[in-house]
Each structure stands twice: as structure tokens, then as C-alpha cells.
Amino acid sequence: VSAGAFHQEINSVAVALVAPRGELVAFNCGGPAFHFPPERLRAEVGPALVAMVRALAAQTGGRAAVPEETP
After folding, report:
1. Which of 30, 41, 52, 69 could tie 13 with a disulfide, CB 3.0–4.6 Å?
2. Higher-confidence residue: 5 or 53?
3. For 30-52, what is the HEC assignment?
4. Residue 50 in contact with residue 44, Cβ under 8 Å?
């Protein structure tokens, strides 16, 4: 989660996918901080992004680059 690191009024979250041949692909979601406070990114957006990347990894033979305990 990035809360204002790039721009004070922009928050975002990202998840990496390691493709079968080792390439890294980043998936992210962000926008105005008033729409995406850090709590929402951690509770809603981040877990949805992790689920999406895990589904893509399962279909492509890649892997999601997230800790195992991540929901």
C-alpha cells in the first residue's frame, strides 16, 4: 500500500505476478486518497487484487509474489 508516497493526494496498492519464464508483471489500483484511504486499500482493494493475481497465476503457470498469509 502506498499512501501518498508518489503524490500526497493519491493512494494505491499493487501486487506482483511472476510469469512462468520469470518476468515480473505489476497489477495496481489507485486513485484519489478520499476514495481510496489506506484502510480501504488494505481491507477491500488489496485482497481483491491478490485474488485476481492468484487466479491469473493459476491459469498461466506463474505465481503471485505475496506472503502466504495474505488473504
Report:
1. 41
2. 53
3. EEECCCCCHHHHHHHHHHHHHHH
4. no
pLDDT one-digit tens code per residue, 27-48:
999 999 999 999 999 999 999 9
Task: Pull the grid cell for residue 60.
Answer: 498461466
Give the torsion sign (CA, 66, 49, 31, 11): negative
What residue has cell string 515480473?
A: 24
CA angle 55, 22, 5 (to 5 degrees): 75
Task: Round to whole Å and give the CA distance between 63 and 19.
Answer: 7
Contact status, residue 28 vs residue 37, Cβ threshold 8 Å:
no
